[in-house]
Amino acid sequence: MPVRQVSGAFKYVLTSAGAVSGVPIADRAFTLVCVIKSEPVAAPIAVGTVGLLQMPVCMATADPGILLIQSFTDTSEGSVGVDTTWQILATTHDQPNATPRFHRKEVSAGSWTHANGTSTFVSNSHLADAFQFGMLIGGGGTQHLIATAAVFLRSLSDPEIESMISTRSILDRGPAALWDFNQPTVTMPVLDLTRGGANQTSQQSTVVIYGDDPPGWQFGLAEPSPPPIVHGRGAT
Questions:
Q1: End-to-end distance of the chain based on CA atoms, in angstroms?
Q2: What is the DSSP letter of 166?
Q3: For the chain, what is the mean pLDDT?
Q4: From residue 135, how far is each of 1, 52, 95 by CA, in Å?
Q5: 159: which residues sit within 8 A by CB, 6+ positions away?
Q6: 3.40.50.300, 1.20.1290.10, 2.60.120.200, 2.40.50.1020: which CATH number matches 3-209?
Q7: What is the spatial distance between Cα 80 and Cα 115, in angstroms, rounded to a whole number?
Q8: Is the pLDDT of residue 23 over 60?
Q9: What is the pLDDT of residues 123-169, one digit of tens each?
Q10: Do 100 and 57 touch, CB atoms closer than 8 A?
């Protein structure tokens, strides 16, 4: 299954804000989710105009955890451990000026880690007008791959975060926007699977990668297949 590589400076997929358009996201509860394989430091998801002084929220990988960044001046970090395996990363934020909570699990192994941030995330009035996936500044290595991402306009609980085992399971939690990055070519746009309109508007120098997708991750919105029914002897 293909995934998208977004390695290097200013290589990204940009979408509209869809149902989140005009929302001052730093002033409310929200959750950001990414399924990624990434070296620190990379920015899996940014909410706001690339620029990025008007960026309301950015969730980035870091060592040893996840950063929640606002305009590169206000940062909260959660030491949940981040490495170069495929992993599910999430940040939850309860209310304005709250301390965010960070969440991480390797896709194919281990258990979830949850940790509160190092500081509060300061409220601001910047309005969401776009989503950007990929590197914002700097260079970095080649291990910046993204499979799936989502944005919620509420703070998910730890059990809700831990229930995310596929794209469909994320949709079932009610995101404001949801994307799979499994398009076979860069000419095929990334679409918001909630149908809320946060669809791709442009992409900059990204690459489709085959043979390195998250192990066991199920893309798309199909319901998981039920286990086969095994009838005992004499059953009809």
A1: 39
A2: B
A3: 86
A4: 22, 12, 27
A5: none
A6: 2.60.120.200
A7: 6
A8: yes
A9: 777 788 899 898 665 545 556 899 999 999 999 999 999 999 999 99
A10: no
